[in-house]
Write a structure and sequence with these properties.
The protein has 21 helices and twelve strands. The protein is an alpha+beta fold. It has a domain of about 160 residues. The chain has a five-stranded mixed sheet with strand order 1-2-8-5-3. The protein has a three-stranded antiparallel sheet with strand order 4-12-9. Helix 14 packs across helix 17. The mean pLDDT is about 90. The protein binds protoporphyrin IX containing FE. The site of protoporphyrin IX containing FE has 22 residues, from helix 14 and helix 21.
């Protein structure tokens, strides 16, 4: 059989393309990880041995499943259940170590000086983009880097200034008082006390607050978006645990298809809301979307955000602002149920400062005990338990030289419970440690970072704290609460730190 010259050339070309692919693959799955591992080991860092492709993802996944299979006692340390692999590594390898996210080495840091540097040098330590699916739920500011991040942060900042947020206190009040009234009805039906799983109520509360404060007049459509985002978060969490299967996100599985469908629905609803606002050219609304559009339109040509980008930021407010705040509130109520003395002190303060009046920014700012309690809950139960960054080029970090291609993990939960940083009572609930503020409690170290740190610190922290104070004030002045006998203590992460079996409390009308 004769092979023509052109077929021969095509075969050679094909073979070369194939060889190039095989080379790239071998480099990605073996040569680069081993090269990086050597560089880390030469600097005295130790870690898990590299398993091609999957790294520690399977091990992490099975350690998490094992940890989640049994609840713990209220007084137990939650870290073995929430971050089992990093904790085991910390015990065996010391303060800095590496593990593997597939073929990427992840260096965990717990030294406050190193953490400060990572948070401050935002151009050297960027956001990792390992799971592109995450963009479905949390794109926008939280995911951008470099100049694009700086531009968006500048435009969005005004929407979160205290001057603007203080006008949202009535919306916080409205959503919170609706829930309190519902609980009062439930308690009245049962005499004067009732058992309630407060977790779904608090999830709805914070979703309601975001729908109202972000979308004001488009509140109902906002609520729809929230329902879809919540479903998406569930599906994404399941997808992450299979992320070690190469190309899994492209498989046409039922859940992958549903995720795309939800994404389309959310985008359609949001673009409808934004489109109507832009077309109407009405006086700017005092909601987050209104302030954002106003700040955006005040930019010189080419310096503003596109409608698509505004849409991403609105989606992000839901994800970043709703879930985290409901988590803060639920652990606060659980810990105040366990520590009745602090519940009584907080109530006394609320009655003194607010009495039966509607809260406003000034009265909320006077709630010192409530603030101490919220900080202590954020320390022991940080909604985001771990943050990470990617290093793209060789970077000096103290004595270490980080090669390009590694990630850095900042385990907030481990740092905030570290006995060397917080004392031998680090695991105990002692809000008094914050009586003179955060810098005194931390001795000016970067050891309290529930909202992150540095230029990329949470843009919504004032919003979250004011909302939480409003909710607590309203609840405390109407109810006393304790853990129900059916409460099961089982913190676990679904992006943020959830109570796995809900939060069953007994509410007693005062
Ligand atoms: C208790 C409540 C909250 C907690 C614990 C929390 C936590 C955090 C953390 C840890 C970061 C930093 C992420 C990193 O550096 O990788 C962050 C960033 C962010 N948060 Fe929050 N957050 C809360 C509430 C909110 C609220 C209410 C909103 C908005 C409505 C919000 C919007 C954002 C945004 C947009 C970013 C990205 C900032 C940037 O990269 O410049 N957060 N948050």
């Amino acid at each position: 059989m004769e092979i023509s010259f052109s077929s021969m050339a095509a075969l050679v070309a094909l073979a070369m393309v194939l060889m190039a692919w095989i080379w790239r693959f071998v480099k990605w799955v073996w040569l680069k990880p081993k090269f990086l591992e050597n560089r880390l080991k030469r600097q005295g860092l130790s870690g898990t041995p590299y398993t091609p492709f999957v790294g520690d993802m399977r091990r992490n996944s099975s350690m998490l499943s094992e940890a989640r299979s049994k609840p713990i006692n209220l007084t137990d340390d939650i870290t073995p259940r929430v971050l089992p692999l990093p904790l085991t590594m910390l015990k065996t390898h010391g303060k800095s170590f590496f593990t593997w996210l597939g073929p990427i080495p992840v260096i965990t840091l717990t030294n406050p000086e190193q953490i400060k540097e990572v948070f401050n040098k935002i151009y050297d330590y960027e956001k990792p983009h390992t799971f592109p699916l995450v963009r479905l739920i949390a794109s926008g500011l939280v995911n951008y880097d470099g100049d694009k991040w700086a531009k968006h942060r500048r435009i969005i900042n005004p929407a979160f200034h205290l001057e603007k947020i203080k006008n949202m206190v009535p919306a916080f009040y409205q959503s919170c008082s609706e829930i309190v009234q519902e609980w009062e009805r439930l308690a009245a039906d049962k005499g004067s006390s009732c058992e309630v799983d407060i977790w779904p109520w608090l999830v709805n509360l914070t979703a309601d607050v975001i729908s109202r404060t972000a979308f004001g007049s488009n509140y109902r459509e906002g609520q729809m978006i929230f329902k879809l985002q919540a479903e998406l978060a569930q599906l994404l969490t399941q997808a992450f645990r299979k992320a070690y299967i190469p190309g899994y996100r492209y498989f046409p599985t039922k859940s992958n298809r549903r995720m795309k469908e939800i994404d389309r629905e959310i985008r359609a609803t949001l673009s409808g809301i934004i489109g109507k606002r832009v077309e109407a050219r009405e006086a700017p609304n005092d909601d987050l979307l209104g302030i954002l559009l106003e700040s955006n339109s005040g930019q010189s040509k080419g310096n503003g955000m596109s409608i698509e980008e505004v849409m991403q930021e609105c989606k992000l407010f839901y994800f970043a602002g709703q879930e985290t705040t409901s988590v803060l509130l639920v652990w606060t109520m659980i810990l105040l149920s366990q520590h009745q003395d602090w519940q009584a002190r907080a109530r006394e303060e609320v009655m003194q400062v607010l009495g039966d009046r509607k809260p406003d920014i000034d009265s909320l700012n006077q709630l010192k005990v409530v603030t101490m309690i919220l900080y202590e809950v954020l320390r022991l139960y940080p909604p985001a338990t771990q943050l990470s960054r990617a290093v793209h080029k060789e970077t000096k970090l103290g004595d270490l030289t980080l090669p390009g291609g590694v990630h850095v993990a900042l385990p907030i939960l481990l740092i905030q419970r570290d006995v060397e940083l917080w004392g031998s009572d680090a695991g105990e609930f002692k809000p008094e440690r914050f009586k003179d503020g955060i810098s005194k409690a931390t001795k000016n170290q970067v050891s309290f970072l529930p909202f992150g740190w540095g230029p990329r610190i949470c843009i919504g922290q004032n919003f979250a704290l004011l909302e939480s104070k409003t909710a607590l004030a309203l609840i405390l002045r109407r109810f006393s609460f304790e853990l129900s006998p059916s409460y099961v203590h089982a913190p676990y992460t679904v992006f943020t730190l959830h109570p796995q079996f809900g939060a069953h409390l007994v509410l007693r009308k005062l």
